[in-house]
Amino acid sequence: MTSGAQIPDAGVPAERAGRLAGVVLAAGTSSRFGANKLLLRLDSEPLVRRAARQAAEAGLGPVIVVLGHEADVVAGALGGLAVETIVNPAYRAGMYGSMQTGIKRVPGDCAGAVVLLGDMPLVKAAMIEALVERFRRGTEPLVLSLYGEVPAPPTLYARSLFPALARAGMGGGREVVLAHRGEAAEIRWPETLLADVDRPEDAARLGVRPAEPA
Predict the structure, then answer these.
(1) Which domain holds residue 190?
(2) 84-87 sheet: strands from edge to edge
(3) Looking at residue 93, which CATH number applies to its domain?
(4) Which pLDDT score is estimated for 199?
(5) What distance in Å separates the CA atoms of residue 25 and residue 2, rounded to the nearest whole number?
(6) Is 97 among the domain residues?
(7) Is there a contact between 197 and 154 (Cβ–Cβ < 8 Å)?
């Protein structure tokens, strides 16, 4: 684990010097996949656990995992990790509600939060660390990941944007990104890293497999 997300260099402005939370969205029904994709495994590790672990290894704290569909089962896949879980009871209404549930849980001493998806297995701790480092040395309220020209998580929101996230409609974080794109810092990643598991063919392409029977 690096300490960059929690212990910034000297000279960082006070409003950027607080710790940074991680918010992992893991509440969806996986309706297009046909089974709970968050429990699928890459290198023998459930996808939801992999996402939360990468956030923790990047130094984010606290790491808040927002649950919904099959919450108890998904929480079980996180056993032993230093994460917090919270359930969005209205998870069927869409991802925007889960994001708002997680953001509300972020402690007051956090300077911002990195929002991640539980089904993007190619996101690594080093990518999160790069967002944090860019946030610390800049003034922008938003640090975006760009895959080619496509913005997608992980995304870092400064605390100043939390009220906008709370007010966002069904567009959620995307709505806030669009409204503040002109103020954002951007970090570019290879387009091949933009991969989530929505359908069985996505899992096959990425080498993601169901858990082995006990």
Answers:
(1) 19-203
(2) 84-87, 63-67, 19-26, 110-117, 150-158, 142-147, 185-189
(3) 3.90.550.10
(4) 81
(5) 23
(6) yes
(7) no
Residue 4: predicted pLDDT: 44
- Residue 176 contacts residue 144 (beta carbons within 8 Å): no
Q: What are phi and psi of 178, to 5 degrees?
A: -65, -40
Q: What is the pLDDT of residue 169?
A: 79
Model pLDDT, residue 8: 53
Residues 81-107: tens digit of each pLDDT: 999 999 999 988 888 899 999 999 999
Q: What is the mean pLDDT of the chain?
A: 90
Counted domains in the chain? 1
Answer whether residue 2 is part of any domain.
no
Q: Enumerate residue ranges in the chain where pLDDT < 50.
A: 1-4, 214
Cα–Cα distance for residue pair 163/143, rounded to 1 Å? 17
- DSSP secondary structure string for all residues of the chain: --STTTSPPTT--GGG-SEEEEEEEE----TTTSS-GGG-EETTEEHHHHHHHHHHHTT-SSEEEEEBTBHHHHHHTTTTSS-EEEE-TTGGG-HHHHHHHHHHHS-TTEEEEEEEETT-TT--HHHHHHHHHHHHT---SEEEEEETTEEEEEEEEEGGGHHHHHH--TTHHHHHHHHHGGG-EEEEE-GGG-----SHHHHHHHT-BPPPP-
**pLDDT tens digits along 21-55:** 999 999 988 777 767 889 999 999 999 999 999 99
